[in-house]
Amino acid sequence: MNEIIEKFKKELGYKVSIYNGRLIYDGNLILKRTGIRELPDNLTIMGTLDLYDTEIVKLPNNLTVKKNLYANYTYITEIPDSLIVEDSIYLGNTPITKLPDNLIVNGELDLSNTPITKLPDNLTVRKSLILNNTSITELPDNLSVGKDLDLSFSQIKRLPNNLTVHGILKLANTPITELPDNLSIKGSANLIHTHITKLPDNLKVGKNLYLSDTDIIELHGPLIVNGNLDLSNTPIGFLPDNLTITGYLSLRCTHLKKVPNNLTVGDWVDLSNTLITELPDNLIVGGYIALDDTNIEALPDNLIVSDSLIMRRTGITKLPNNLTLGGSLLLSGTPITELPDNLTINGNLDLSDTKITKLPDNLTVIGDLYLYGVNIRELPNNLTVRDELFIRVLYVRDFSQINRNISPQHINNAILLERDGVRYIKADGIFSVIDSHHGNVYKVHQLGQEDKPLYLVTDGDNHWAHGATIKEAKADLIYKINDRDTSAYKNLSLDDMLSFEEAIAAYRTITGACSAGTRNFIENSLPTPHKDKYSIREIIELTTGEYGGKAFAKFFK
């Protein structure tokens, strides 16, 4: 035993001790990219064992690792029955072909990019099982996975019945053609670039459902997706009525001819390049509606769009009566000839390459106005444009009469919607269901989050704030109303770094975002794991399309 200790110290530079006949190393044993070929039997590592990119071909008998085992890019072909690892095992990019039966992995098990074709019986992985780019064609019926199951780019052809995935199921770019009955996915399901044609009636998905570039042709209802539903670039031509999507709905480049009745979407809807010709009267959408390159020619009266309406290169000739918009109106390349008087656009207005020859009276644009390629000879005296005017018309040379001051009643307006007795509100950048309302206080919840109530308060002068409690919401409202000192950020460049906490403070100070909205973005939209530091450039990229994102980017121009 002493000879082994001396050899270990001489060859590896690590000192081990003996306890009850076992070799003990008290700490993390980092041997990655060394020339090591073998380890002694009966070895216990009290921390992590890192063998990444070594020439080791076999693990020793009775090896115990108290934390993680990294054996990626080694020459290991199998692991001994006596191996004990108390956290994760990483074997990606090895020639491993076999695992022992009844294996229990308390952390993650990574077998990506290996030639393994079969998993053992009674395999239990308490965190994620990573099998992407393997030759696995099926899974054992008694498989238990505690978090994500990643089979993307594998040869999987079927999943076992009654499978429960407690995290994300990743099947992208696999030959699978159907899903089993009673499949339960607690997180998201990524099925893009598969040959799936339909979903089982009793499928349960906890978050997002990604089906773009599949062969899906139908969905059955009633269906509730507690996240995003992406069906873009599929042959689907029909959606069930009473469909509820708490996130976004993408139907871009599908065969859809009709938007289902009573469709409720918590975020944006993309219907571009579809076969639809009209929108239903009872559509509820919390974000923008994109209708680019469709055959739609008219919109229903009293249409309320919580964010932007995007209708480029459509046949629209006239806007509906009493149109309410919460964002931009993009109509470039359409045959539209006129706009209604007293129109307010809470974003950009793009009329480029349209048949418009005259702007309406009292037009207010709280953003940019695009008039490229239009035959307008003069601008009205009561035109208001807060930001930039983009125009290439030789007839118009005087822009001095354009009003640049926006009246407070045009800014931060809440958008209210109602259908079948249910009331919705888009305020402070958050779309939610109204549970109750008393004076300037609303009790609300976001779609699919009935168990997470929020409070929305206003001062009655178009200032709004959310909070987990009324007290928190009112405190945020006061924070928004008061002047916020942004001088500390004036000299920062796009490459300057802020800590995670500093980034949150900077974003809220510059944009006025409330704590509830910021917390919701961090919990549901910010990629994990969260980094210790972010550059200003990264923050701008991550918050594009989010509440306050445009204001934050503009601050650093």
- Largest β-sheet summary: 19 strands, parallel
Count of DSSP-assigned helices = 6
Class based on secondary structure composition and strand pairing: alpha/beta
Strand composition percent: 15-25%
Q: Give the proportion of residues in helices.
A: 10-25%
Gyration radius, rounded:
29 Å
> Which ranges are low-confidence, i.e. pLDDT below 50, for 5 or more consecutive residues?
none
Number of strands: 47
**Overall body shape:** elongated
State mean pLDDT (0 to 100 scale): 88
State the separation between the terminal residues, measured CA to CA. 67 Å
Key terms for this structure?
single chain, 557 residues, alpha/beta, 19-stranded parallel β-sheet, six-stranded antiparallel β-sheet, 6 helices, 11% helix, 22% strand, elongated
Question: Can you give a write-up of this model?
Answer:
With about 550 residues, the chain is α/β, with parallel strands linked by helices. About 10% of the residues lie in helices and about 20% in strands. The strands form 9 sheets. It has a 19-stranded parallel sheet, with no helix packed on it. A 6-stranded antiparallel sheet has the order 40-41-42-43-44-45. Strands 1-2-4-6-8 form a 5-stranded mixed sheet, with no helix packed on it. A hairpin with a 2-residue loop joins strand 40 and strand 41. The longest helix has 12 residues. The protein is elongated, with a radius of gyration of 29 Å. The N and C termini lie far apart (about 65 Å).
